[in-house]
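Incident log, entry 3
Record: Ava_C0101 and related proteins (315 residues)
Problem: checksum mismatch between cached and fresh output.
Input:
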Amino acid sequence: MELFPAVPLRDWADTKETLHRFLQVVGKIRLTSAPRRNHWWNAPYHLNGNGITTRPMGVVDGNPVFTVDFDFVDHLLVARTIDGRSASFLLPGHSVATFYREVLATLDGLGVHARIPRPRPYDLPDSGRPFAEDVEHAHYDPEAANRYWRVLSQVNMVLEEFAAGFSGKTSPVHHFWHTFDIAMTRFGERVIDQPRKAGPLIREAYSRDVVSFGFWFGDENTGEPAFYSYTAPEPEGITDRPLPSGALWAPSGAGHLALLPCAEARRAPDPRSAVLAFYEAAYRAGADLLGWDRAALDCPSGVTDRLKAKGEQWS
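Fresh output:
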């Protein structure tokens, strides 16, 4: 299978915009139906064998334990409860409005009474329009949706491999429904007192110093998919640090992103190694300037056992 198949934004923009809002509908259910976790780790999706999953949720909201999965092989929305019942419906053919109503009806039929306190998009151009009124976004190309999931799955494995090299506090690899990216974050120990005006999302997400890594599919400002990394708070001089060939430091808001366009990674003799080298260079740039003890935090091949003999087997 081709590694990191091309996903130019122009080829699936309509599907992406519709699917992004579908994910936000279910993501907002997850937000109110799962225990709160530090840095919002309770909110995102995780990858599974045929799409993405909310993971089990319920109980804290008075509902039975349930999951909601997007199946991008058979193109279904699948809801399941802990007692073995399930219900599903096809993803193609829905606007955001009909999808929203169908999700709630499907869950209600399983005895799950989902709540969405603010049933409208988050941080999107139409954030003032309720999901129930959005008949504009109604395009779902199964081939494009399947390609999106395959790219997510491949990036997921690269991020898992990269995560193994760090023994400090690390987030799961997860797919964010508000920004439509997949990411993994390494955390330092320094407490960052974000100002109240930053808002609850930023204050919780960046309450410690971080170096974050991920991939996104592009938007109206960045018309191509790219691997990325950023350091927060951004230390002075980070853009003077070297990145591998094809990567660059790009302005983003008040700071900068390290970017490796997907097309550059695809051109490399070994795309996987190119992405890992990019992440490592961005990590060293941020961690060194933040003053992290990289030697103490190194975890080669996911091993912290200092006595482990070379080639020793554990299974």
